Structures are given as structure tokens and as C-alpha cells.
Amino acid sequence: MKNKTLVITLLSIAAFAVGCEKKQTTSQQIDKVQTETKAAAQDMKDYTFAQKAEFVKTMQGQLDALNKDLDELSAKIDSSSDAVKAEAKPKLQALRDQTAQLNKQLDDAKNATESTWDSVKSDFQKAYDATKDGFNQARQWVSDKIAP
After folding, report:
1. pLDDT digits (tens, 9 = 90+) for 62-81
2. CB 124 within 8 A of CB 99
3. pLDDT of 22 higher than 90
4. Taking the model in full, what pTM does it have?
5. DSSP label of 47
6. Is 34 within 8 Å of 136 (Cβ atoms)?
7. Do 72 and 87 meet the contact criterion of CB atoms below 8 Å apart?
């Protein structure tokens, strides 16, 4: 009987924990994104010119994720008040401009030669870090302006 009670209690706790994990706070989401950003930045440092195609493919995936994040931020802002929309418009445009610049730099990486590889990769990394920082600031701003 004690074993049944113990098993039921453990299963209840596990079910509760799983249910709680589905809702993440904005700060938890930001922490997760920052961790992923650090991992992506480290990954960028490790690519050699011989791995250029793999680098481009990986960074294209990162860029696609940024564009998805931008769409999600835009949707949250679109469902907010007119004042928030007006204040957010230049912030969103700046993020769109940064991702467009990042796309251009990814094209530069695709066309890099062995002699320009380290410079192109470094420039991309700087732009990527700046863009991710901009996204993190925008997420924080949205969470401050719009109640979850």
C-alpha cells in the first residue's frame, strides 16, 4: 500500500512538473535564447574555410530562426494598443534592417575565399551578435509593454 501511494505521488509530481514546463516566463525564454546565442557564437569560431558550406547552412538556419522570432514579435505587437504599435514600429524596422544586413553578410560568407574567410566569418559573427542582442532587447521591451 505504501508503494502504491509513493508511486501515485511521484507520478503526480512528474505530471505537475511537465505541466509547469510548458509555460515559460519571458525571462526564462530570454535566458534560453542567450544560452543558444552563446552556443551559436562558439560554433562560429570553430569553422575553418574547408567547412564553409556547413557554416553557411548552419548560419542560414540561425537566420531563419531570427526571422521567425521577428514574425512572432510583430504578431505580439500587432495585437497591442496603438501607442505600443507606434513606439514599436521603428524598433521592428531596425531589427528588419539588421537581419537584412546579416543576410548580405551571409552571402559574403558564401562567396568568401580562403584568404578572406577569417575576416568574413568575424564580420558575420559581430553582426549576428548585435542582431541577437537587438532581439533580446526587443523581447524585453515587449514583455515590459505588453502583459503576458
Report:
1. 999 999 989 988 888 888 88
2. no
3. no
4. 0.62
5. -
6. yes
7. no
